[in-house]
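User: For my dataset I need records formatted as: sequence, then structure tokens, nothing else. Please produce one.
Assistant:
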Amino acid sequence: MNRNEFIIATAVILFTTFVVGWLIGLIIQRLTRPTRADMGELDRMAQQLHEAEDARDAAIAKLEEREADLGQKLAATQVDFQAAMDSLRESRAEIEDLREFIERKLGRR
């Protein structure tokens, strides 16, 4: 076998290997391609995912609204509590002043 025959034989082997690999790739691609039923299932799952995300977003919005409402109620309750405590403090001071006044009036008689 001379040099030219060796080059031709190597080229034929490489070309044959390329063609066989290409054909095997096509066969594998055809066998692993998703069917229409699989695509329909994927579409259905994607729709369910979108619906679940929408439901989650709605729940988060409702939670945030509820949290804001409860925060406002808490702030109002704290203001009422502080006002009640201030009134109680003033009432105690007034009662103490009245006791001192009564004790002074009763003690002087």
